[in-house]
TrEMBL record:
Name this protein carries in UniProt: Fungal-type protein kinase domain-containing protein
InterPro entries reported in the protein's UniProt record: Kinase-like_dom_sf (IPR011009), Pkinase_fungal (IPR040976)
Top-rank taxon: Eukaryota
SUPFAM superfamilies named among the record's database cross-references: Protein kinase-like (PK-like) (SSF56112)
Domain Fungal-type protein kinase: 80-130
Organism: Roridomyces roridus
Pfam families referenced in this protein's UniProt entry, alphabetically: Pkinase_fungal
Length: 130
């Protein structure tokens, strides 16, 4: 079990607009029974479209999502997600005002995810807040 994250550039895509785009690729080895991050984000984005369109600016946009069963006798699957890059909170180029706005937006989004989308993220750390 674990996650690997890498930056990449789309060289060739069936979706022409993605060509040359900077992306982040996440490889997640996890239990088959663990709800996929892509499913949670899809649920939240669908709710946001009607309930709170402002939240769409704060939820990741996935360009591609794949799931591969490595060994049918094991409980593990490999989930690969290609998404637009997000800005890390520890970026030294952020001003104090930008950082304060980012935290305000994060708290608003987190509260909305819990209260409206019924999604609770249990690993809140600097590396997971973008």
């Amino acid at each position: 079990r674990g996650t690997i994250v890498a930056e990449a550039i789309v060289l060739t895509s069936p979706v022409e607009e993605y060509n040359g785009t900077d992306v982040v690729v996440k490889w997640v080895w996890t239990s088959k029974t663990h709800t996929a991050e892509a499913d949670l984000v899809r649920h939240a984005r669908n709710l946001a479209e009607t309930e709170n369109p402002h939240m769409l600016d704060h939820l990741p946009h996935f360009l591609c999502v794949e799931e591969v069963e490595i060994d049918p006798s094991e409980d593990l699957v490999l989930r690969v997600v290609v998404q637009e890059p997000l800005e890390p909170l520890d970026d030294p180029r952020l001003t104090g005002e930008e950082l304060a706005k980012a935290f305000k937006d994060i708290f608003e989004c987190y509260r909305w995810l819990v209260e409206v989308a019924k999604i609770l993220h249990r690993d809140i750390s600097v590396s997971n807040l973008m």
